[in-house]
Amino acid sequence: MQNDISVAALCLNLEQKLMEVWNNELTLERYRKVLAEFTVFAGNSSYSQSLGADFLIARFTERGGLVSTDEHSRKEETYFRCMRMLAEYHNFGIIHRRNDFFGEIVWPGPFRQCTEGFFEAVIKEGLSYGYVTRSRMIIHDLLLFLDARGIHTPDKISVRDNDEFIKSFYGLSPKGIETKLCTLRRYYRHLYLQGYIRVPLAERLPKASIQGRMAFPTVWGQDEIKKIEDSAERISPAGKRSYAMVLLAARLGLRIGDIRNLKLHDIDWTKKQISIIRHKTQKALLLPLPEE
């Protein structure tokens, strides 16, 4: 995370980074335009994601309003993507290319301060880019749900509203439910501790116990292993990779950590052998390469 950096310096850093990884001059020019406008808007201010949201609101209020649904113009899409990319580069030092579009960077007015504060807190805690991205979508869904129920301020959220939102998780995997509940618990705890809500909603959330339901068998029979191998898709590159991982585990007994760490130079195609250093024991191991 790049703390206390001016908007001008951050925009310049991002532009230079984009020039290294992108070769589409038309796209670069569109992003340069947005970054230049944001630099003028911010003046000598240090960067914050809240300032980026202010810029989007001001920019599109001038154009007749802010659109944050699926019906949006290409220009607005570019502005949102650029501001989100700037936030991710500032927070995590990465540029994540994508083709999707979400308007959730600009949170609804009454929820904006508390939600931006929540994400600033989790980023400072050092939580991963993936965690923050997933959490944004969960909070986004929560706020849409509350809006549909006519709830537009945090202090109006009731235990019943909370329970009804959780019912929408029906059909998700146990792990998916646990992920959503953990995010909600952290979000509600932040709202309560910062005085945005009076009811400790985090304590009213159910606990997701997934250990028993998600456990895999400790032993697979030969017939079960054969069914797993036969069910693997082997046409796409991803399918072939998955099939190879299944074979390495089933035929050679490799642990998942050893499979994950396997490199191309560990394979001797001429001798049809795999040579690795086992992660658990740190001992060398030489294995035959399966015929498949």
What does this structure look like?
- It is a single chain.
- This protein has three domains: 1-99; 104-211, DNA polymerase, domain 1 (Orthogonal Bundle), CATH 1.10.150; 222-288, no CATH class.
- Helix content is 57%, strand content 4%.
- It contains twelve helices and three strands.
- A three-stranded antiparallel β-sheet has the order 1-2-3, with no helix packed on it.
- A hairpin with a 4-residue loop joins strand 1 and strand 2 (273-277).
- Mean pLDDT is 81; it is low at 67-71.
CATH architecture of the largest domain: Orthogonal Bundle
Helix-strand sequence: HHHHHHHHHHHHEEE
Percent of residues in beta strands: under 5%
Query: How many distinct beta strands?
Result: 3
CATH topology of the largest domain: DNA polymerase, domain 1
Task: Please write the CATH class name of the largest domain.
Answer: Mainly Alpha
Reported for the largest beta sheet, the result is: 3 strands, antiparallel
Helix content: 55-70%
Structural domains: how many: 3
Structure characteristics:
57% helix; 292 residues; DNA binding; 3 domains; globular; three-stranded antiparallel beta sheet; mainly alpha; single chain; 12 helices; DNA polymerase, domain 1
Write the layout of secondary structure elements.
Elements: H1 7-21, H2 25-42, H3 49-62, H4 74-92, H5 109-124, H6 129-148, H7 159-167, H8 174-193, H9 211-214, H10 222-231, H11 237-252, H12 256-260, E1 267-268, E2 273-277, E3 284-288
Antiparallel strand pairs: 1-2, 2-3
Helix pairs in contact: 1-2, 2-4, 3-4, 5-6
GO molecular function, one term: DNA binding
GO biological process, one term: DNA recombination
Domain Tyr recombinase: 215-292
